[in-house]
Amino acid sequence: MRTLRALWTNLRDSGLEPGSVPPVALERIRVVNTATLSIIGIGVLAVLQYAWMGLVAMVLVVAGAQLLGVLNVVVLRQTRDPALAGHAATTLLFVVLLASNVVSGGFYDPNFGWFYVLPLLGAVLNGSRGGWLWTLVVLGTTLGFWGARELGLGPVDRVPAEQHAVQSLFNRLSAVGAVAAVAAAFVAANRRTQEELRRSAVSAQRKASEDGLTGLPNRAAFRQSLRRSLASARRRGAGVGLLFIDLDGFKRINDSLGHAVGDQLLREVAARFEAELRDSDLFAVSRLGGDEFTVLLDDVADASGSVRVAERLLAVLTLPMLLAGREIVVRASIGVAQYPADGEDATALLRAADHAMYHAKRQHRGWARWDAASMESADRTSLQLEGGLRRALQRNEMTVVYQPIVSAAGELTGFEALLRWASPELGPVAPDVFIPLAEETGLIVPIGQWVLEQSLALLRELPSGLRIAVNISPQQLQRPGFLERVSASIASAGVSPDELELEITQRAIVGEEGPAGRALSELAALGVSLALDDFGTGFSSLSYLRRFPIDRVKIDRSFVADIEGELDARGLASAVVALARELNLGVVAEGVETPGQRAFLTRLGCDELQGWLLGRPMPSAQALVLALEAQRKRGSRDNASMAVTKRSAINS
Ligand code: C2E
Ligand code: CA
Ligand code: CA
Asked: Whose alpha carbon is nearest atom 24 of ligand 1?
């Protein structure tokens, strides 16, 4: 019973999967097939039962079938491909009828001619041009036979009366043959129709669901597969992972290098993601638009599986891309969400992944897993933070502390200025938390300027030969007038420009050949030195290092942290230091916490060290004391050398 039903369904739908063609087309195919099959069935029964009635039935069968052929063509027209059915059906039918006629020795009854004509008329209606010709030929032959008999000419009724029973049998056989022919023609025509339909539907669907730039599924297609995946996961009790990927700093690359390069970059990113996930049918990348991508992970039981995929995708981006003759390393932030834990439906899951991405981005973390409790409270806090941050400067809640930088030999060479914020409502807030927020809101520009002024004020007091390094955010650098503001501040503080160092991140200078790049060059020309912060993390591109007047690099503390334990980390640290030395840059190692790290880094050839081992960040007064002490020590050791403070140098 079940196989019968399956057979019927298959016959009715011509073996097409629901969903593979537009529903309207499938509906029409069903109508055509059901009607054809039932009429053919009735016809066959009638032919077998009564010869004469069978004849009438055959006319109905064939005319009906041809009418259905017309419907078939209507369907085809809908799919913009009119050439079909008519020729095949008509020709087959005509050949069979003609053959049966020849075998039976001629027309038994000239009225029988209409039996031949009707299908051909149907074929004409079908839109088959050949049908006209066949109709004329058959009509002519029929009329010819009829006329000849009426006029008593020729051997018209060649069949003797006693053979009429045989004739009748032939008539029946030819009718059955016609049924078979019609059926065959229609099965063939239908199959072709459906193939065409399927092909055009698939290509239409593809066009509508493909992202023009990258060829990945677009937002609409993604939403559809997300819903489908969730429905199937719900049935099976399975898990689904969702990654929401957003490139970091894409807008800047797009703006500074042009849209053509931006497009090329997106294509390259898409290709890398696809290549990385090619081996799994369960993982599908889509592009939502802009620089946003998603990966749908079917059958991922828990979020750790999705996180592994996120890490793989981040890893494929670490290799620089060669775009418009430039090496560019693009980073991404990925939000990870898991069905059903993080969202029960498509909208909720997507929102969770998007939200997690946003947190990953804010924390420069690569990826982040959605975590409702902590992220929602983080959002609340960040609202609070933002409000507090706007008033922090006026309310004197910010201070600058200074962390010593020491030469390999252990002598103080300068300080890095680090911002501190003690909010009355929130307590002390770590820079890693509020600096990204200040960058997002643009507040970093006045705050950064304030840090610069504080640092210059301390610099005025410091003995000469010591420098202060001030962190500069990309936003500050890109704001017009940066060069003027910095040089005006230096001038009004009355310090020598070569005692000021600006620390910029590689993030800040990607794609910066514009005004910001020129500002850096001009500051360098004034004597201000430039340090590349967080060296070795992401965005590493040698061509950038050559293009900017950089004096030294700061080896990120992530490299330093593991050098006592992991062999890999030691190799990495040595490679990064070797690279910097190869480029003739000074090297400062950050985050030195242990004597072991210090020994290793000194052996590698780091020029300077910074970290808790050598000194914690301290208030300016304490920094000044430390500087004067260091100067005294140096003075007594150098014996003859005079203690010259900056101020007395200026005064003299
Ligand atoms: P950074 O520029 O990489 O600064 C070095 C960070 O490492 C500082 O964190 C410092 O306190 C910390 N550090 C120093 N020695 C050690 C050590 O031995 N071990 C460990 N674990 N950490 C050490 P801090 O002050 O929290 O600053 C974090 C980041 O905030 C800075 O990273 C910098 O990117 C940003 N920042 C701080 N002040 C400013 C500022 O005035 N302007 C801008 N634009 N960014 C700032
Ligand atoms: Ca720094
Ligand atoms: Ca750093």
From this structure: 431
Distance (Å, whole) CA 414 – CA 380: 39
The helix/strand/coil state of 377 is: helix
Distance CA 337, CA 350 (A): 8
More confident residue, 46 or 11: 11
Q: Is the pLDDT of residue 419 over 50?
A: yes
Q: Per the omega criterion (within 30 degrees of 0), is the bond before 595 cis?
A: no
Q: How far apart are CA 484 and CA 480, in angstroms?
A: 9
Instruction: Give the binding-site residues of ligand 1, using a 6 Å CB cut-off.
Output: 403, 417-419, 430-432, 435, 444, 448, 451, 471-473, 503, 533-534, 557, 590-593, 611-612, 617
pLDDT at 352 over 50: yes
Q: Which residue has 């891309």 as its token pair?
A: 321
| Contact yes or no for 314/248 (Cβ under 8 A) | no
Among 338, 374, 220, 202, CA closest to 288: 220
Cα 478 to Cα 249: distance, rounded to the nearest angstrom? 13
Could you say which DSSP state residue 154 is in? Answer: S
How remote is the C-alpha of 166 from its chain's centroid?
74
- State the ligand closest to the CA atom of 419: 1
Cα angle: 448, vertex 405, 481; to 5 degrees: 25
228-233: long-range pairs with CB below 8 Å, 24+: 229/296, 229/298, 230/339, 230/345, 230/346, 230/349, 232/298, 233/298, 233/299, 233/339, 233/340
Average confidence (pLDDT) over 35-51: 58
Q: Which of 164-178, 215-229, 362-376 has the lowest mean pLDDT?
A: 164-178
Q: Which of 400-404, 473-477, 538-542, 594-598 has the lowest mean pLDDT?
A: 538-542
* Average pLDDT over the chain, rounded to an integer: 78
Give the global pTM.
0.57
The confidence band for 648, taking pLDDT boundaries of 50, 70 and 90, is very low
- Protein residue whose Cα sits closest to atom 33 of ligand 1: 471
pLDDT higher for 244 or 187?
Answer: 244
Q: Rounded to an integer, what is the distance from CA 55 to the centroid of its chain?
A: 64
The percent of residues above 90 in pLDDT, for the chain, comes to: 37
Nearest to 508 by CA among 264, 253, 234, 321: 253
Closest residue by CA, ligand 1 atom 3: 534
- Decide: 118 and 55 in contact? Cβ < 8 Å: no
Q: What is the DSSP string of 410-428?
A: S-EEEEEEEEEEEETTTEE
The maximal CA–CA distance of the chain, rounded, in angstroms, is 148
| Residue 404: pLDDT band with limits 50, 70, 90 | very high
Determine the Cα–Cα distance for residues 167 and 145; give it in Å rounded to an integer.
Answer: 17
Question: Rounded distance, CA 136 to CA 49, Å?
Answer: 32
